[in-house]
Amino acid sequence: MGVHTGSALPATSELGHAESLNSTEKDPDLQDVKEKVDVESFGVSHEEEDVDETIIKNDEDVALEVISTDDDPTLPVLTLRTLFLGIGLSAFTSVLATIYTFKPQNASVSQLFCLIIAYVLGTAMHSMMPTTGYWHYLNPGPFNIKEHTAIVIMASTASTVAVAMEVIAALDLFYNIKLNPALAIFQIFASQMIGYGIAGLLRNLLVYPTYAFYPTYISVVNLLQSLHFGGILNHKKRRYFWIVFTAIFLWEWIPQYPFPLLTAISIICLVDNGRHTFVRNLFGAGSSNEGIGLFSFGTSWTLITQGNPLVWPLRTQVNSYIGMALGYIVLTACYYTNVFNGRDILWMSQSLFNNEGGSYNQSAILTPQNTLDSSKVDSVGLPRYTTTYAISQMCYNFSLGAAIVHVLLWNWRELSRAFGKMRFMQSSQDIDDPHYQAMKKYKEVPQWWYLVLLVGALVIGIGCSYNKGDWLLPAWSVILFTIISGFIAICIGFIAATTGFSIQIKHAMNILSAFVHPGQPVAVMYVNLYGNSTAYQCLYMLQDLKLGQYTKLPPRATFAAQMAGSIIGSIFNYTMMISIVNNNRAALIDPVGTRVWSGWIIQGYNSSSVAMGAFGKELFTYGKPYYLIGFAFFIGLSFPVPFWLAHKLAKPGSWVARVAEFVNTPIISLYIGYLPYSVNGQWWSCVVIGFLSQWWARTRRPKWFKKYNYLTSAALDGGSQVILFILSFAVFGASGNAVEFPNWWGNPANLSVDRCALTDG
What we know:
Blueprint: H1 14-24, H2 31-40, H3 46-50, H4 62-65, H5 80-101, H6 111-128, H7 135-138, H8 145-159, H9 163-175, H10 181-201, H11 203-206, H12 218-228, H13 232-256, H14 267-272, H15 277-283, H16 301-304, H17 314-336, H18 377-380, H19 387-410, H20 412-419, H21 434-438, H22 447-464, E1 466-467, E2 470-471, H23 475-499, H24 506-516, H25 521-526, H26 528-551, H27 555-583, H28 585-589, H29 600-620, H30 627-636, H31 640-649, H32 655-662, H33 665-672, H34 683-700, H35 702-730
Antiparallel strand pairs: 1-2
Helix pairs in contact: 1-2, 5-6, 5-8, 5-27, 6-8, 6-35, 8-26, 8-27, 9-10, 9-27, 9-29, 10-22, 10-26, 10-27, 12-13, 12-35, 13-35, 17-33, 17-34, 19-23, 19-30, 19-33, 22-23, 23-26, 24-29, 26-27, 31-32, 34-35
Subcellular location: Membrane
InterPro entries: Oligpept_transpt, OPT
Region (Disordered): 1-39
């Protein structure tokens, strides 16, 4: 099918064109059809003509203009291909994602990677298996979009590494607490299911309506429809996809392996050549924790795609760029004026430091029961953060507070409509979204299924929090933080559904838990399962429910795919984690790690649990060194108010009203503190690509934008993910042996990859 503008149009086959051509000789009234056929002979299809030049003005209209509402309810869903590939890819992606968790490279398993592999294997199964006789039940026709979507949901769900697995690994590595395998697996599964139960109750609010369009999923759906729908236009789109996919596949290995300088090109750094620390801090961006990348451009799509320049609406991108622009000023000024007393520590790091600037010895201040030993604090001292990391945590908490008020002010109408009469407990009748209307022919998942899932998972989670006669987290705390996370899920869900942007809540939850469980670092770390993980598992479920709605996958099939992916992922997450932890314990505990294994993600949970769990009152109460980190949440509550008032008081349509409506304070606040992590060479490339896509192409080339913009994103993401996967095992050490490329000017031995910082190489 072609790309439509909201209404379903019939597919145009080659036979259909031939019939139209002959009929024009008999009926002059069909001459316009013949003209379109004649046009198609020169490379323009009938369906291509149906894509008009109308500019997409409202962000949510993308879902109506780019994605077809067509559906064939006769397509089979639960087939041998669905089960075989769904289970197999779920196991594969969960193992791969767990391996990536313990690697020095910051990589993840992309949903587009799962989509492409599933398509190749699914079409191969159809081609290789007989279709006659009893084989028809095993091979019931071509690999279809509904089978494909179910497999993608299963595999991507399994590839999302559960926070519970990371917390269980931290307990093992840093506290010598080894959970029973069955208890650990049930803990992982239950922590996910709580979020899924909450998601089911929010469908009327964050799945069904048009405004909940999840921008980051448009490219996924666009690719699925292009691969499976017929018509000459979609044949051209498939060809276009594979050309772009191949091009990025052939290119991406160059900046990733032999020529890493291309990941962060900075003229200023090339001129300075690593001589000045200030230049490195502000302009460096090529190596992890090097600098914040002012005027640094990258050519690696693996990094550029982190900014979603082809997918995020322009408003979202501009607000993020405003935040980063302020971040260059705020981070640099705070560090060099010794804010948070961090001038003598590293510029960028997420570790804890002692009074002398070295690594903090947490074992020296904990009792054998892993609680704070107050008698040892005077001799060891309090831990310290780097200035940039402390500022970043403040900004994340600013963002969370601003997000709550932003949603209440700007989305009150939608909230009251969904919750005012408790109508979220039943099917909504006034949702006019065409994708939702097309789904009404299928049986919906009853709300009581989700309620049973929520209550059952909560009970299991409470039971699994009790280990060997002691509570890792008390039952009342599990319930408390689940409720808090459920309310926050509404806010971050609204933001993600309408902007594609994801709010971070981990730091706020850590601080809150530090005051709820003072002196108990293990409990503070365990709160992440219910205060942090629950909200994001809810968001993942909402996104997949929307994916099912876009592709017309029956709701009960979507529910089953999510459950199956979670069960398989929980089992393989745990078994692979135990194998890695047992065989590489020394490397995972080491602050630096090795070229093959690193525990940097797990160490982050441990550092937060020690600083906030053991020293919450000493570091985060009013007047203490980092009290502003906690109070930032309350300060952030006020950020959206001036802009909302300006919009209400200004003359409708005036520039004041438009600017006030455009500003998104949660996004700006977070991006002020977004830079002091990992590498930053991609952001200025994102600015250029983002404006070319979401402004120039969207307003000057609307036909191309509707047909190819999101398909381009899918092709670039897919090709770069596949080559990254190959490189990870071939040369980056995922298979156990890393192969370094010989040093040269573009891959220096004694400088960072952008030649901005001296190294020990």
